[in-house]
C-alpha cells in the first residue's frame, strides 16, 4: 500500500466542507447578535470590561466590536465590516454588522436546502446591485438646508447617550461646525475638532470657532486673556543656539566670560524683541522656550506657550489664518494670524487654552462636557457619528427616509425583481430581501412593537402610502412616514452598509476549508 502523505504539521487544526461553513456562519451570527439590541432609538447599551478592569459603556457598534476580544477568523471579518463602515462614512456600523449576520442566517437555510454556495453568492451579488440602485432612487434631496442636516445629525445620535443636552441642540452645533468649514461645496473634515473635558454637565457643550489646546503658558505672570490678538506659530527653539559639532571654548579672563554671557543674553533678548517689534501678542512655539526668553516675553506683555504639540500647532495656524514660521527674524506681517481672543480658561482643575479665530477661522472645535468620563466618552462617540453623518449627506449624495423605511422599500423592490429571475438564484435574491427586512424588524422589536405585526403594518403602509418606518414614541412606537417626523439618514451610509455587508457575507460563504495552527 502507498504510504499516506502528510503536508500539514501535527498541531494544525483543519475544518472542511459543511462543518467549516456552519462554523463560520455561527461565528458571524454571534457577532451580529452581540450588537443587534443596540439598534435604533430604543437600543440598549453594552458594558465592556477588559482584563485590566477598564469599563466602556456604549451602544456604538464599532466601539463594541472593537473592544470585544474576538478570535474566530469569520467573526473578525464581521468586525472588519463595522470598521470599514466607520472609516468610509463614520456611521451605520451596527446596521452593517446586523445585515451581514442576517445574510449569513438566510444563507444557512439555503445551504440546508442543498443550494450550492456559489448560487447563493451570485444571487446575493445581483440582489445587492438592485438594492444599491433602489437606494439611489429613494434619495429625497441632494442639496440640503440646515434643517435637513440637523435631522440627519439627530438621527445619527438616536439611541446614544447625550447627557442632559438634547440631540436637537447638539445637532444645531454640529451643522454649524460643518457649515463653518465648508468652502465651495467642499468640506474639510479634518478641520472639525472634538475636544472633551469632564467637570460640568453636558449642557455646557459649546462650539468654538477656533481650537482648544491643552498647554500652559511658559510664565504664570503672563496675561490669561488677550482679545484681538496677533498670533505667531513658530517652529524654532527660542533658546541659545547650539553647535552641530562638539566644540570647546577657552576663556582666560573675566572680560571674555562677561562678553560671552552678554552675547548669550543679547541673543535671547533678541527673540523677544523680534516678536514684540512684529506686533505679536500671542506666540505658540513647538520647541523649547528658554526661561530668560520667557521673562523678556512676559515683560513685553506677550502670552507664550512652549513645546506645543505639532498637530495642535497646525490646528492653531489654520484657526488664526497663518502658517508655521521657521524663524522669528524679520517676520513678515502677512505671516501672522489673528484671533478674536486667546483665553486661558479653567475647566475643573485644569487650564485649557481657547483660541477663537472668529468667522474667518478655518478650524472649529466642539468642546464636549460631561459629569464623568463614561458620559463624555459616549457623548464624543455620538457627536462624532453626527458630524460624519452630516458630512456624508453633504458630500455623498443626499438623504433617504430613515426609521427602516429605506430598508422596507429596498426589500420590496428586491423581492419584486426576484420574481423575474430564473432558476435557483431566485431563492437567494428573495433571501437577500428577507435579510434586509431584518433591520426594520429589529427596530420594531427594540422599540417595543410586536415584530410580526410591525412587519405586516410596514409592508401594508408602504404599499398604500409609499413610505413606512418605525416611529418611536411614548412607551412603544407606531408605523408611519418617517419623513413627516424629520427622520432622515445619509444615503451614503445605506449604500456602504449594503455593499460591505454583502461583500463580507459572500466571502464567508465561499469558504469550505479552514486550516488553522493551534
TrEMBL record:
| Bias (Polar residues) | 14-23
Q: Pfam families from the entry?
A: Cpn60_TCP1
- Write out the GO MF terms: ATP binding; ATP hydrolysis activity; ATP-dependent protein folding chaperone; unfolded protein binding
InterPro entries assigned to the protein according to its UniProt record, in alphabetical order: Chaperone_TCP-1 (IPR017998), Chaperonin_TCP-1_CS (IPR002194), Cpn60/GroEL/TCP-1 (IPR002423), GroEL-like_apical_dom_sf (IPR027409), GROEL-like_equatorial_sf (IPR027413), TCP-1-like_intermed_sf (IPR027410), TCP-1_chaperonin (IPR053374), thermosome_alpha (IPR054827)
Which controlled-vocabulary keywords does the entry list?
ATP-binding, Chaperone, Nucleotide-binding
NCBIfam families per UniProt:
thermosome_alpha, thermosome_beta
Asked if the Swiss-Prot or TrEMBL record annotates the protein with the keyword Plastid, the reply is no
The answer to whether the entry has keyword Nucleotide-binding is yes
Q: What is the official name of this protein in its record?
A: Thermosome subunit
Amino acid at each position: 500500500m502507498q504510504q499516506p502523505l502528510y503536508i500539514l504539521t501535527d498541531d494544525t487544526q483543519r475544518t472542511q466542507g459543511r462543518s467549516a461553513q456552519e462554523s463560520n456562519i455561527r461565528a458571524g451570527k454571534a457577532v451580529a447578535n452581540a450588537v443587534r439590541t443596540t439598534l435604533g432609538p430604543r437600543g440598549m447599551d453594552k458594558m465592556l470590561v477588559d482584563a485590566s478592569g477598564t469599563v466602556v459603556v456604549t451602544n456604538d457598534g464599532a466601539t463594541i466590536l472593537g473592544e470585544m476580544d474576538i478570535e474566530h477568523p469569520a467573526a473578525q471579518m464581521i468586525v472588519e465590516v463595522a470598521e470599514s463602515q466607520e472609516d468610509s462614512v463614520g456611521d451605520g456600523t451596527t446596521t452593517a454588522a446586523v445585515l451581514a449576520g442576517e445574510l449569513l442566517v438566510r444563507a444557512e437555510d439555503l445551504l440546508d436546502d442543498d443550494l450550492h454556495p456559489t448560487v447563493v453568492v451570485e444571487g446575493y451579488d445581483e440582489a445587492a446591485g438592485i438594492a444599491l440602485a433602489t437606494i439611489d432612487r429613494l434619495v429625497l434631496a441632494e442639496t440640503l438646508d440646515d434643517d435637513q442636516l440637523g435631522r440627519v445629525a439627530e438621527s445619527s445620535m438616536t439611541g446614544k447617550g447625550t447627557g442632559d443636552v438634547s440631540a436637537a441642540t447638539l445637532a444645531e452645533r454640529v451643522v454649524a461646525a460643518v457649515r463653518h468649514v465648508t468652502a465651495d461645496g467642499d468640506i474639510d473634515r479634518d478641520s472639525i475638532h472634538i475636544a472633551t473635558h469632564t467637570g460640568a454637565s453636558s449642557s455646557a457643550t459649546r462650539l468654538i470657532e477656533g481650537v482648544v489646546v491643552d498647554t500652559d503658558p511658559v510664565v504664570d505672570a503672563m496675561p490669561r486673556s488677550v482679545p484681538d490678538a496677533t498670533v505667531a506659530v513658530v517652529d524654532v527653539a527660542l533658546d541659545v543656539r547650539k553647535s552641530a559639532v562638539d566644540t570647546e571654548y577657552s576663556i582666560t579672563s573675566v572680560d571674555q566670560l562677561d562678553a560671552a554671557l552678554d552675547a548669550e543674553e543679547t541673543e535671547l533678548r533678541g527673540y523677544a524683541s523680534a516678536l514684540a517689534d512684529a506686533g505679536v501678542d500671542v506666540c505658540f512655539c513647538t520647541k523649547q522656550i528658554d526661561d530668560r526668553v520667557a521673562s523678556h516675553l512676559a515683560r513685553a506683555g506677550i502670552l507664550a506657550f512652549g513645546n506645543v504639540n505639532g498637530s495642535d500647532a497646525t490646528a492653531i495656524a489654520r484657526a488664526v489664518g497663518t502658517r508655521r514660521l521657521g524663524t522669528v527674524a524679520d517676520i513678515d506681517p502677512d505671516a501672522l494670524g489673528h484671533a478674536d481672543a486667546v483665553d486661558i480658561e479653567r475647566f475643573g482643575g485644569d487650564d485649557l487654552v481657547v483660541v477663537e479665530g472668529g468667522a474667518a477661522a478655518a478650524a472649529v472645535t466642539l468642546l464636549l462636557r460631561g459629569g464623568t468620563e463614561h458620559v463624555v466618552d459616549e457623548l464624543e462617540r455620538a457627536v462624532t457619528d453626527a458630524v460624519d453623518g452630516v458630512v456624508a449627506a453633504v458630500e455623498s449624495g443626499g438623504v433617504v427616509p430613515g426609521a427602516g423605511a429605506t430598508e422596507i422599500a429596498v426589500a420590496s423592490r428586491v423581492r419584486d425583481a426576484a420574481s423575474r429571475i430564473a432558476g435557483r438564484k431566485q431563492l437567494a435574491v428573495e433571501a437577500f430581501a428577507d435579510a434586509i427586512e431584518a433591520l426594520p424588524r429589529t427596530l420594531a422589536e427594540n422599540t417595543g412593537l410586536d415584530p410580526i405585526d410591525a412587519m405586516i403594518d410596514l409592508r401594508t403602509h408602504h404599499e398604500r402610502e409609499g413610505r413606512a418606518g418605525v416611529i418611536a414614541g411614548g412607551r412603544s412606537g407606531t408605523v408611519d412616514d418617517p419623513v413627516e417626523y424629520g427622520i432622515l439618514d445619509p444615503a451614503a451610509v445605506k449604500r456602504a452598509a449594503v455593499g460591505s455587508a454583502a461583500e463580507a457575507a459572500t466571502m464567508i460563504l465561499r469558504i469550505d476549508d479552514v486550516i488553522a495552527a493551534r
